[in-house]
Amino acid sequence: MKLAIQPLYVFSLACLLLTSACNAETEWRALSPENTVLMTLPQGKVVIELAPQFSPSHVQQFSKLVKEGHYDGNKFYRVIDGFVAQGGPEDGSAKDKAVPILKIEGEWTTDKKWSFTKVQDNDLFAEQTGFKDGFAIAHNPSEKAAWLTHCPGTIAMARGNEADSASSHFYIPNGQALRYLDRIMTIFGRVVFGMEHVQAIRRTSVIEGQPAVDSRDFTPIVSMQMMSDVPKEQQILIEVENTETTAFTERLVKRRKRDNPFFYKKPLPVLDVCQVPLKTRLVK
Questions:
Q1: Strand stretches in the chain, DSSP E
Q2: Is this prediction's pTM over 0.85?
Q3: pLDDT along the chain (284 residues), means of 10
Q4: What CATH number has the domain spanning 30-258+266-282?
């Protein structure tokens, strides 16, 4: 009796014989148009990857609001250099009041089977840091808890003093990593394309002695659309580096060692998870 050779077996065998070819196949992860958002600003396009595997309720509400045109015409009203660009409907407006309040999704429970690509032990804010599904995370095994980290370019939901008070106002860190906000805010996505346009959003906070910025000069959100709702010829399709590969782990090791001759004095072998830029490319 002949045994049928399954495609997966053939692929696995090819990986053993041609490791470089196998790595090339798995180096990139394509983003689904159903899970990405296209934000149009006056200065250009921004693509946001959502994280329903970590913050399902926030992603569901944000996606629904995007589809309803909730953010179209809103402005970035709180933009502080080196901190965040925050936008949403006018406080107290009918549009603002109509949005349901969300329970915080600041962390999740882990067990012994849970895995991720580790970057560093004994991080300043956590016992471990690393990547999961392309997102920077922190992990405390002693608490069996993990969470997304406030690296520049992440997108999170603003809230009041109460933990469960977020609705539709969101912010994007535009400077340093805001790790002190980890676990007490809900991160639900990250910018994967067009971060330079986020950095170009008009600052609304001025230094002492300068006149206040007129609200009419705040940067508007021209539109927000789920990428799947954008006409195909106008879609921006993105592939991002796969953080679950051996090649990525090896890149982390090299980045930590800093073996480049430029470093004639070697820094300590410390690697901040927010200082690991992930590769991104446009799909042709």
A1: 28-30, 36-41, 44-50, 75-79, 84-88, 108-109, 117-121, 128-132, 135-140, 145-148, 154-157, 170-173, 186-193, 223-226, 238-241, 280-282
A2: yes
A3: 36 44 70 98 98 98 97 96 94 83 97 95 96 98 98 97 97 96 98 98 92 95 98 96 96 93 92 96 87
A4: 2.40.100.10
